[in-house]
Write a sequence for this structure.
């Protein structure tokens, strides 16, 4: 996981947005988790302006 952002309105509603990196390919993904009257999760590959996957170019822990 590269970064995490929590969005919370102080009630039971909220969302977590995380940036993930595949350790073998270094491709970056955006993961969203929504919680309120249920739970939902989504995963999307991040792409550049040409539609190619973004590759993480920093050190992985």
């Amino acid at each position: 996981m590269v970064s995490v952002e929590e969005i919370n309105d102080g009630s039971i509603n909220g969302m977590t947005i995380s940036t993930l990196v595949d350790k073998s390919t270094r491709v970056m993904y955006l993961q969203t988790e929504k919680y309120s009257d249920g739970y939902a999760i989504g995963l999307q590959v991040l792409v550049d302006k040409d539609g190619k996957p973004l590759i993480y170019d920093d050190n992985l822990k």
Summary: The chain is about 0% helix and 50% strand. The mean pLDDT is 89. Strands lie at 3-8, 14-21, 28-36, 38-45. The radius of gyration is 14 Å.
